[in-house]
Amino acid sequence: MSIRGAIALFCALIFVSLPPPALAADKEPQKPAAVKEAALAYISVTGASGDGEQALSSALAKRLTVAGVKQATALADNVYSVEGIVKLVTAKGGRQAVRIDWTVFAPDGMTLGGVSQTKLVRKGSLDKKWGAAADAAARAAANAIVKLLPPLSPTAPKAP
Asked: How far apart are CA 102 and CA 157, in angstroms?
């Protein structure tokens, strides 16, 4: 083989081994940026008089939603549990002491922490409707509860 033949063969081998030039239509589409996935929380309240269990659950769910935590309707593998226990104790001067202990549990059941609230109210004022009291309790507890949850984490985009 002549030198010219060897150079031609060498050039042909290099040309064959190079990838074909990419055309605009052949380019892989850009993957969307990772989106933030909100934590999911299941909220339950026990021990409250009147409509307190439902009112406190709803008020806290509303406050947590504003903070980026979605409410779950049932416990599942990726759902955090927020449990509220309410205790009403008679106090002096026609008052009641209301104590709410909120405990936050990870999806695996591990306790992440708790938030306690105590307030003196007029005796019997929470026997039927909690209304503004539930909203005030939820407002006061929500930020501390959110701090017990892990920060919102980016997730991989889902395949189309």
From this structure: 34
Q: Please tell me the least confidently modeled range out of 26-30, 53-57, 147-151.
A: 26-30
Residue-wise DSSP of 22-66: PPGGGSPPPPPPPEEEPPEEEEEEES-STTHHHHHHHHHHHHHHH
What are the structural domain ranges in the chain? Answer: 36-150
3-class DSSP state of 120: strand
**What's the rounded Cα separation, in Å, for the pair 71 and 61?**
6
Question: Which CATH superfamily groups domain 36-150?
Answer: Lipoprotein like domain (3.30.160.150)
111-122 and 95-105 as β-strands: parallel, antiparallel, unpaired?
antiparallel
Q: pTM for this one? A: 0.71
Assess whether pLDDT exceeds 90 at residue 143. Answer: yes
State the Cα angle at 77 between 75 and 80, rounded to 5°: 55
